[in-house]
């Protein structure tokens, strides 16, 4: 008789940045500075992108993740992927961001 095999799920997260090196978000301007620096100046007005800024309970930045890159008028975000990344990094907060290249001006 054949036994059923079930896959074991392993979840891990590690960061090379120490707690003392993490940037703290105090207001929307702080979040904007981090997010705008994560964009490529050569494509910010060409392709729409969707990013998330991941925060711990003290509003310290765990990282920025680019979730999707689309065309000039839109991009698709897989919500399961968004939540998977937030859970895997043990994020207590998530800030969502995307650009609008079709508007014809830079976010800077």
Q: What would you say this structure looks like, in words?
A:
The protein has about 110 residues and is of the alpha+beta class. The protein has helices at about 30-35, 80-90; strands at about 50-55, 60-70, 95-100. Strands 2-1-3 form a 3-stranded antiparallel beta sheet, sandwiched between helices. Strand 1 (about 50-55) and strand 2 form a beta hairpin. It is flat. The model has no long low-confidence stretch (mean pLDDT about 85).
Number of helices: 2
Structural class: alpha+beta
The residue fraction in helices comes out at 10-25%
Weakly predicted, low-confidence segments: none
Average pLDDT for all residues? 87
Question: Which helices and strands, and how do they pair?
Answer:
Elements: H1 28-37, E1 49-55, E2 61-69, H2 79-88, E3 93-98
Antiparallel strand pairs: 1-2, 1-3
What is the gist of this entry?
The chain is an alpha+beta fold. Helix content is 19%, strand content 20%. It has a 3-stranded antiparallel β-sheet with strand order 2-1-3, sandwiched between helices.
Q: Main attributes?
A:
108 residues, alpha+beta, single chain
